[in-house]
Amino acid sequence: MSKLYEKFKTDLNKFLQDCRKLIILPVGNPIFSDDSISLILGKRLKKKGFNVFLGFQSPESYFYKILKTNPSHVMIIDVTDMGLKPGMFLLFSCEDISLEYTSTHNVPLKTICEMFNKRGIKTALVLIQLKRAELGKKPSLEVLRGALGLEKLLVETAKNKCCLA
Predict the structure, then answer these.
(1) Positive or negative, the Cα torsion across 37, 8, 116, 46?
(2) What pTM did the predictor assign?
Protein backbone atom coordinates (compact mmCIF):
# COMPACT_ATOMS: atom_id res chain seq x y z
CA MET A 1 0.00 0.00 0.00
CA SER A 2 1.30 3.44 -0.86
CA LYS A 3 1.52 6.30 1.61
CA LEU A 4 -1.06 8.25 -0.43
CA TYR A 5 -3.50 5.33 -0.24
CA GLU A 6 -3.07 5.07 3.53
CA LYS A 7 -3.44 8.85 3.88
CA PHE A 8 -6.66 8.71 1.86
CA LYS A 9 -8.06 5.93 4.10
CA THR A 10 -7.24 7.96 7.22
CA ASP A 11 -8.67 11.18 5.73
CA LEU A 12 -11.83 9.36 4.59
CA ASN A 13 -12.45 7.86 8.03
CA LYS A 14 -11.96 11.28 9.61
CA PHE A 15 -14.26 12.96 7.07
CA LEU A 16 -17.04 10.40 7.61
CA GLN A 17 -17.05 10.70 11.41
CA ASP A 18 -20.59 11.34 12.64
CA CYS A 19 -21.96 10.73 9.14
CA ARG A 20 -25.66 9.94 9.01
CA LYS A 21 -26.31 10.59 5.30
CA LEU A 22 -23.67 10.89 2.58
CA ILE A 23 -24.33 12.39 -0.84
CA ILE A 24 -21.89 11.68 -3.68
CA LEU A 25 -21.66 14.44 -6.31
CA PRO A 26 -19.47 13.28 -9.21
CA VAL A 27 -18.59 15.94 -11.77
CA GLY A 28 -17.05 15.69 -15.20
CA ASN A 29 -17.61 15.67 -18.92
CA PRO A 30 -18.73 12.32 -20.35
CA ILE A 31 -17.14 12.95 -23.76
CA PHE A 32 -13.57 13.58 -22.50
CA SER A 33 -11.80 10.26 -21.79
CA ASP A 34 -10.57 10.38 -18.16
CA ASP A 35 -12.83 13.32 -17.23
CA SER A 36 -15.76 10.87 -17.46
CA ILE A 37 -14.35 8.58 -14.74
CA SER A 38 -16.09 10.31 -11.82
CA LEU A 39 -19.44 9.96 -13.61
CA ILE A 40 -18.80 6.27 -14.27
CA LEU A 41 -17.85 5.83 -10.62
CA GLY A 42 -21.00 7.69 -9.52
CA LYS A 43 -23.22 5.35 -11.54
CA ARG A 44 -21.50 2.32 -10.02
CA LEU A 45 -21.86 3.72 -6.48
CA LYS A 46 -25.56 4.42 -7.04
CA LYS A 47 -26.06 0.73 -7.87
CA LYS A 48 -24.39 -0.11 -4.53
CA GLY A 49 -26.84 1.96 -2.49
CA PHE A 50 -25.14 5.36 -2.39
CA ASN A 51 -27.10 8.60 -2.74
CA VAL A 52 -25.65 10.02 -5.97
CA PHE A 53 -26.38 13.17 -7.95
CA LEU A 54 -24.48 13.18 -11.26
CA GLY A 55 -23.27 16.77 -11.51
CA PHE A 56 -21.72 16.59 -15.00
CA GLN A 57 -20.25 20.05 -15.82
CA SER A 58 -22.77 21.98 -13.68
CA PRO A 59 -22.83 20.48 -10.18
CA GLU A 60 -24.29 23.72 -8.80
CA SER A 61 -27.56 22.77 -10.58
CA TYR A 62 -28.10 20.09 -7.93
CA PHE A 63 -27.37 22.24 -4.90
CA TYR A 64 -30.99 22.74 -3.77
CA LYS A 65 -32.01 19.18 -4.68
CA ILE A 66 -29.20 17.91 -2.48
CA LEU A 67 -30.19 20.25 0.37
CA LYS A 68 -33.72 18.80 0.27
CA THR A 69 -32.32 15.34 1.07
CA ASN A 70 -30.92 16.69 4.38
CA PRO A 71 -27.40 15.23 4.11
CA SER A 72 -24.81 15.41 6.84
CA HIS A 73 -21.94 14.98 4.35
CA VAL A 74 -21.33 15.72 0.66
CA MET A 75 -18.43 14.28 -1.28
CA ILE A 76 -17.64 15.89 -4.63
CA ILE A 77 -15.58 13.69 -6.95
CA ASP A 78 -13.63 15.12 -9.88
CA VAL A 79 -10.70 14.27 -12.14
CA THR A 80 -7.79 16.68 -12.54
CA ASP A 81 -4.05 16.95 -13.03
CA MET A 82 -2.23 17.02 -9.70
CA GLY A 83 1.09 15.80 -11.06
CA LEU A 84 0.61 12.32 -9.55
CA LYS A 85 0.61 8.86 -11.05
CA PRO A 86 -2.58 8.38 -13.15
CA GLY A 87 -5.40 6.89 -11.09
CA MET A 88 -4.12 8.11 -7.72
CA PHE A 89 -6.70 9.94 -5.61
CA LEU A 90 -6.66 12.36 -2.70
CA LEU A 91 -9.29 13.81 -0.37
CA PHE A 92 -9.37 17.54 0.35
CA SER A 93 -11.44 19.59 2.77
CA CYS A 94 -12.86 22.86 1.47
CA GLU A 95 -10.17 24.71 3.37
CA ASP A 96 -7.49 22.69 1.57
CA ILE A 97 -8.73 23.63 -1.88
CA SER A 98 -6.71 26.46 -3.31
CA LEU A 99 -8.40 29.42 -4.94
CA GLU A 100 -6.07 28.73 -7.86
CA TYR A 101 -7.56 25.24 -8.37
CA THR A 102 -9.14 25.44 -11.78
CA SER A 103 -11.73 23.17 -13.26
CA THR A 104 -13.88 23.03 -16.34
CA HIS A 105 -17.08 23.55 -14.38
CA ASN A 106 -19.37 26.57 -14.49
CA VAL A 107 -18.94 27.35 -10.78
CA PRO A 108 -15.62 26.63 -9.01
CA LEU A 109 -15.80 23.52 -6.84
CA LYS A 110 -14.37 25.47 -3.90
CA THR A 111 -17.41 27.75 -4.09
CA ILE A 112 -19.78 24.77 -4.11
CA CYS A 113 -17.96 23.27 -1.11
CA GLU A 114 -18.31 26.52 0.77
CA MET A 115 -22.02 26.74 -0.09
CA PHE A 116 -22.62 23.35 1.57
CA ASN A 117 -20.34 24.10 4.52
CA LYS A 118 -22.20 27.35 5.27
CA ARG A 119 -25.32 25.23 5.74
CA GLY A 120 -23.59 22.93 8.21
CA ILE A 121 -22.97 20.11 5.73
CA LYS A 122 -19.50 18.62 5.99
CA THR A 123 -18.05 18.66 2.48
CA ALA A 124 -14.95 17.18 0.87
CA LEU A 125 -13.49 16.99 -2.60
CA VAL A 126 -11.97 13.77 -3.90
CA LEU A 127 -9.66 14.33 -6.85
CA ILE A 128 -8.48 11.55 -9.14
CA GLN A 129 -5.30 12.03 -11.18
CA LEU A 130 -6.05 11.90 -14.90
CA LYS A 131 -3.83 10.53 -17.63
CA ARG A 132 -5.48 12.24 -20.57
CA ALA A 133 -8.53 14.30 -21.48
CA GLU A 134 -9.16 13.63 -25.14
CA LEU A 135 -12.43 14.23 -26.92
CA GLY A 136 -14.30 11.03 -27.75
CA LYS A 137 -11.71 8.64 -26.30
CA LYS A 138 -12.33 5.95 -23.69
CA PRO A 139 -10.96 6.45 -20.16
CA SER A 140 -7.41 5.22 -19.61
CA LEU A 141 -6.96 1.87 -17.92
CA GLU A 142 -4.83 3.37 -15.11
CA VAL A 143 -7.49 5.90 -14.16
CA LEU A 144 -10.24 3.30 -14.39
CA ARG A 145 -8.26 1.03 -12.03
CA GLY A 146 -7.80 3.94 -9.64
CA ALA A 147 -11.54 4.65 -9.66
CA LEU A 148 -12.30 1.00 -8.91
CA GLY A 149 -9.91 1.15 -5.95
CA LEU A 150 -11.64 4.32 -4.77
CA GLU A 151 -15.03 2.61 -5.14
CA LYS A 152 -13.89 -0.31 -2.98
CA LEU A 153 -12.67 2.02 -0.24
CA LEU A 154 -15.85 4.12 -0.32
CA VAL A 155 -18.10 1.07 -0.12
CA GLU A 156 -16.16 -0.44 2.80
CA THR A 157 -15.88 2.79 4.75
CA ALA A 158 -19.35 4.23 4.18
CA LYS A 159 -21.07 0.97 5.05
CA ASN A 160 -19.01 0.68 8.24
CA LYS A 161 -19.92 4.27 9.15
CA CYS A 162 -23.64 3.62 8.40
CA CYS A 163 -24.04 6.75 6.27
CA LEU A 164 -25.93 5.32 3.29
CA ALA A 165 -29.36 6.15 4.72
Answers:
(1) positive
(2) 0.92
Residues spanned by the domain of 24: 3-160
> Domain of 137: which CATH number?
3.40.50.1450
The verdict on residue 165 lying in a domain is no
Residue 51 in domain: yes
Angle at 8 between CA 154 and CA 45, to 5 degrees: 15
In terms of phi and psi (left: phi > 0; alpha: psi -120 to 50; beta: otherwise), the region of 139 is beta
158 to each of 75, 118, 150, how far by Cα in Å? 11, 23, 12
Domain contains 18: yes
Dump pLDDT digits (tens) for 78-132.
999 999 999 999 999 888 876 555 555 567 888 899 999 999 999 999 999 999 8
Question: Who contacts 118 (Cβ-Cβ below 8 Å, separation ≥6)?
Answer: none
